[in-house]
Amino acid sequence: MNITQTPAWQALNTHRDSVAYCHLRDWFAADPDRFSHLSLEVEGLLADFSRQRLNQQTFDLLLKVAEVAEVTGWRDRLFAGEKINISEHRAVLHPALRHLEYEAYPSPEDNVQPDVLAVRDKMRLFTDSVRNGSWRGFSDEVILDVVNIGIGGSDLGPRLAVHALAAWRHPELKFHFVSNLDSADIAPLLDRLDPRTTLFVVVSKSFTTQETMINAMTARDWVEEGAGSPAQDVLARHFVAVTAEPGLAVEFGLPESNIFRIWDWVGGRYSLWSAAGLAIALAVGMDNFAALLSGAGAMDRHFREAPLAENLPVLMALVGIWNSNFLGAETSAVLPYNESLRYLPAFLQQLEMESNGKTVGRDGQPLACKANPVVWGAIGSNGQHAFFQLLHQGGWLVPCDFIATVESNFPLPGHQAPLLANCFAQAAALAFGKTEAEARSELEAAGLSDEQLTALLPHKVFTGNQPSTLLLLPKLDARYLGLLLALYEHKTFVQGVIWGVNSFDQWGVEIGKQLAGRLLPALRGEGDVAGLDESTAALIKWCRARKVL
Ligand code: F6P
């Protein structure tokens, strides 16, 4: 189906033409109850859409698009365990990982719950033993440092959650994340660590990802050298693996007992809820990990049961589609006003851009419209003093997600109220701007001469009308974190359904991997550059004239 040719989409085009030039000032003036009309609270998470450039009629028309795209049907297919990842012939069962009830999921015939629960039990035994000090390294010392080796979904989710939940972290354990193939990532870390007290968690669904395997082999050499022995027992005390390919982890040198299973039905960017989140469970304990799952499970229930018009992931998805496909925004910014969410922008970049960054639909046909915008962002209070200038006066349409919490995870007197004031102020300033008349009266009040005022005035005007959503949480404990991340997961899924893409494959990342494999021998001087494009051949020759390790 070409969604852009449907009457529902066309009606939105017409509606857009009539409202696109309305200013948020006018929207607010027209509806004194705009906030209560355009905000929603779900499980304690407040979402304020009132600063989006839309009204209830826009939402009604967007909901028609969701109906035409069969969002409800696709949602039911997801939860029923149908093989909706069609290009890989797989079901998409990550909600099973946060399904805490002891009932079959997705169905009694295809029940994955026994496997999920068995791995969760194994995670508890293992993480308890590391956390209580009964797990010992080769010299019988307790573990003090945990290093997660993985990349993409095998890194970003655990990295985000371990950082976000640092306030609940085991007091004696330190956590490190290695993802980059550049040895500048792992080398300085190993310099600081002691092999006797370091545990590596190698996370790779495929157990073939080049970056992860090279880093894991470097870590293995380092441990064996530290122990003075390559004995399997040494590895077994310092390495565990999380993978869907246990045979490859055994080849790496690990006993079965050190291997935690994941399955082909969980995609990397949806995997932090599985044993891929082992570092999270080691950091905050299995009870907090279960709270993370229960928060995500609560969002699953909401997404599954709430009518579309009151369904937060659906509304977030529709707002994004309105901004991108109707108002023409090409990027969207994630701006957490909470240091604990430092890694959220990177996590959402993978989640949204790897899921929906596509131009070909589920049916193999080119999409009729652009799918995902470019997602980027940073901690909001830092961004204010860096790139916000462009958001305020750069002339680009950049919809923003502001994310804030009432409490800090590390409270200190005098910090949180100014932080929240800045967050709310930025969202308001972006929305309402400052008119020429307002700027003029400010400059007059400051006593500027006519000449000074005329020169400065154009620089002091802010057009505003920059749309944003504000997500506000009471705090960021494990449950709220789960709720927030599952919200974005389902938003991404709904958008994929409407754009008509399969959100669960990522063929686009293959081309570079294949090419890198072909270039490697040439870079090492073991193959020639014949057949390579002129630029690549020249770069390789330039490097070969130097030394590449
Ligand atoms: O290159 C893309 C990708 O496959 C991601 O989708 C995935 O999260 C990452 O690589 C890591 O893959 P693996 O867990 O198999 O090492």
Give a concise summary.
The chain has helices at 7-19, 24-30, 34-37, 56-68, 71-80, 113-131, 156-164, 183-192, 210-227, 232-238, 246-252, 278-305, 312-326, 344-356, 380-383, 388-393, 416-432, 436-445, 450-456, 478-499, 510-523, 534-544, and strands at residues 39-42, 45-48, 145-149, 174-178, 198-203, 239-243, 259-261, 331-337, 374-377, 400-405, 468-473.
What does this structure look like?
By secondary structure, this protein is α/β, with parallel strands linked by helices. It folds into 3 domains: 24-81 and 306-432 and 465-499, Rossmann fold (3-Layer(aba) Sandwich), CATH 3.40.50.10490; 94-289, Glucose-6-phosphate isomerase like protein, domain 1 (Rossmann fold, 3-Layer(aba) Sandwich); 510-544, Phosphoglucose isomerase, C-terminal domain (Orthogonal Bundle), CATH 1.10.1390. The chain has helices at 7-19, 24-30, 34-37, 56-68, 71-80, 113-131, 156-164, 183-192, 210-227, 232-238, 246-252, 278-305, 312-326, 344-356, 380-383, 388-393, 416-432, 436-445, 450-456, 478-499, 510-523, 534-544; strands at 39-42, 45-48, 145-149, 174-178, 198-203, 239-243, 259-261, 331-337, 374-377, 400-405, 468-473. The chain has a 6-stranded mixed beta sheet with strand order 1-2-11-10-8-9, sandwiched between helices. It has a 5-stranded parallel beta sheet with strand order 4-3-5-6-7, with helices on both faces. Strand 6 (239-243), helix 11 and strand 7 (259-261) form a beta-alpha-beta unit. Helix 7 (156-164) packs across helix 12 (278-305), helix 13 crosses helix 20 (478-499) and helix 14 (344-356) runs parallel beside helix 20 (478-499). The chain is globular. The mean pLDDT is 96. Residues 151-154, 204-206, 209, 212, 268-269, 354, 506, 509 line the site of 6-O-phosphono-beta-D-fructofuranose.
